[in-house]
Automatic annotation (TrEMBL):
This is RNA-binding domain-containing protein. Residues 127-182 are annotated as: Disordered. The chain crosses the membrane at residues 29-46. One of its GO terms (molecular function) is RNA binding. It comes from Eremomyces bilateralis CBS 781.70. InterPro entries: Nucleotide-bd_a/b_plait_sf (IPR012677), RBD_domain_sf (IPR035979), RRM_dom (IPR000504).
Length: 182
């Protein structure tokens, strides 16, 4: 598919990017380069084997992305010639802003992700109790807490010797002897 058959999009697909630069530095450099042409919403640069040397730059509007693509096409970026085209589909960032984003429920093979729904959540267990799907791994089980005690504050143990929350100080001379020899 050539660049002429892809319809104009808010997301630009950049190729021929350097592999040796760290991901955060690459994202920052792309943001600074492309933000001169319009409001950049997101820069997606992955360092996987499939996506190395490539990035997606998401603009707020199509006019900005078109202007940036025309101005930066073929520009030398870290010693390599930029190759820019419109992305084939709408980015997730734009879909979330439009309200049309759907969470993908299938894996790359088209089947559902194994264990996604069957795995119990660690956030649904009561405080102090292990969740249904976790084991303690040989450690002592957590204290059983009564439902009335969950979420209540323990009273502070007040002692007669403490004032204003200061801890009692021990005699410093008994711990460390000072010498005047210098």
């Amino acid at each position: 598919m050539s660049a002429q058959t892809i319809v104009p999009n808010q997301t630009l697909y950049c190729r021929n990017l350097p592999n040796k630069i760290q991901k955060q530095d690459l994202r920052r450099a792309l943001y600074l380069l492309f933000s001169t042409y319009g409001s950049v919403l997101d820069v997606v640069a992955l360092k996987t084997m499939k996506m190395r040397g490539q990035a997606h730059v998401v603009f707020k509007d199509i006019q900005s992305s078109t202007q940036a693509m025309r101005a930066l096409q073929g520009m030398e970026f870290f010693g390599m010639e930029l190759k820019i085209s419109y992305a084939k589909s709408k980015s997730n960032t734009i879909s979330k802003l439009d309200g049309t984003f759907n969470i993908p429920s299938t894996g790359p093979s088209g089947s559902t992700v194994p264990g996604a729904a069957a795995q119990p959540s660690i956030f649904t267990a009561p405080i102090g109790l292990p969740s249904a799907g976790t084991t303690t791994g040989g450690a002592a089980p957590a204290k059983e807490a009564s439902p009335a005690a969950i979420g209540t504050k323990r009273p502070r143990d007040e002692s007669e010797g403490e004032e204003d929350g200061d801890a009692p100080m021990e005699d410093e001379e008994s711990e460390m002897e000072m010498s005047d020899e210098d």
